[in-house]
Amino acid sequence: MSGKGFRTGAVAAALAAALSTAAFVTAAADAGHGPVTVTRSVLSAPATGEPTWSTTASPKPSPRKSSTPPRRQETSSSSAGDGAIRLTFDDGPDPRWTPQILQILTENHATATFFNIGQNAAAYPDLVRQIRAQGSQVANHTWDHPSLPSLGDAAIARQLDRTDAVQGRTPCVRPPYGATSARVRSLIAARGQRQELWDVDTRDWARPGAASIEAQLLAAKPGSTVLMHTGGGDRSQTVTALRDALPKLRAKGIALQGIPGC
């Protein structure tokens, strides 16, 4: 392909991506759902993936993590300047990675909040029990990981209700992708639950390498909430990063725990 042809193709691809993004946001607004906040892109995916659980066409089934950086960082509602870093894990439980992460947490006198996919929790109820037995928390990450602002009120309620039914009613909800809106936050609050996002994205969903994930962990400040994943594909990099980073954080006198009240 000539240089001119390559440039023309690249421009066309970029224009197509921009139009896809515009269409998503416009559709959400046209549906009367109000402004939409997307913490991580829901419109792109890495070149490789290992689908393991989702049977829907939603933008982020388990392994199809976007390689696009978050569009906007939103802090956890529970973030505070205390002496602890809040560890959180999305998209589990997973029979391979969740037990390894729980073991590392135990070895480092740490706990975490696990935002579980409902259909995964239904498939692996023993893992849900193991999370709680370790001292960590279970929370709601919807049934099959749709973008909540694109759903109607009743559909959002079904996503959360089905997950609560299999792992118990939990105080905290994390919208998939970090995609939220005033309407979504209000619906969650009306259920007596609260939305929890994050301050620090380790980007482990993009598999940037264990060293990169570790660097994000070590840069986290006390009071921040850290996003990681225990499901959604190969999490060997996350496991390696945790094994190396948690002892270093503990050596600094930093407590490692889940989100208070979840």
Short description:
With 262 residues, the chain is an alpha/beta fold. The chain has helices spanning 3-30, 97-107, 118-123, 125-134, 153-167, 182-190, 210-219, 236-251, and strands at residues 84-90, 113-116, 137-140, 172-173, 194-195, 200-201, 225-229, 255-257. The protein has a single domain (31-257), classed as TIM Barrel (Alpha-Beta Barrel), CATH 3.20.20.
Question: SSE layout and pairings?
Answer:
Blueprint: H1 3-30, E1 84-90, H2 97-107, E2 113-116, H3 118-123, H4 125-134, E3 137-140, H5 153-167, E4 172-173, H6 182-190, E5 194-195, E6 200-201, H7 210-219, E7 225-229, H8 236-251, E8 255-257
Parallel strand pairs: 1-2, 1-7, 1-8, 2-3, 4-5, 6-7
Helix pairs in contact: 2-4, 2-8, 7-8
Using brief descriptors, characterize the structure shown.
8 helices; two-stranded parallel sheet; 262 residues; globular; alpha/beta; TIM Barrel; six-stranded parallel beta sheet; single chain
Account of the protein in words:
The chain has 262 residues and is of the alpha/beta class. The protein has a single domain (31-257), classed as Glycoside hydrolase/deacetylase (TIM Barrel), CATH 3.20.20. The chain has helices spanning 3-30, 97-107, 118-123, 125-134, 153-167, 182-190, 210-219, 236-251; strands spanning 84-90, 113-116, 137-140, 172-173, 194-195, 200-201, 225-229, 255-257. Helix 2 links the parallel strand 1 and strand 2. Helix 2 packs parallel to helix 4 (125-134), helix 2 packs parallel to helix 8 and helix 7 (210-219) runs parallel beside helix 8 (236-251). It starts with a helix and ends in a 5-residue tail after the last strand. 44% of the residues are buried.
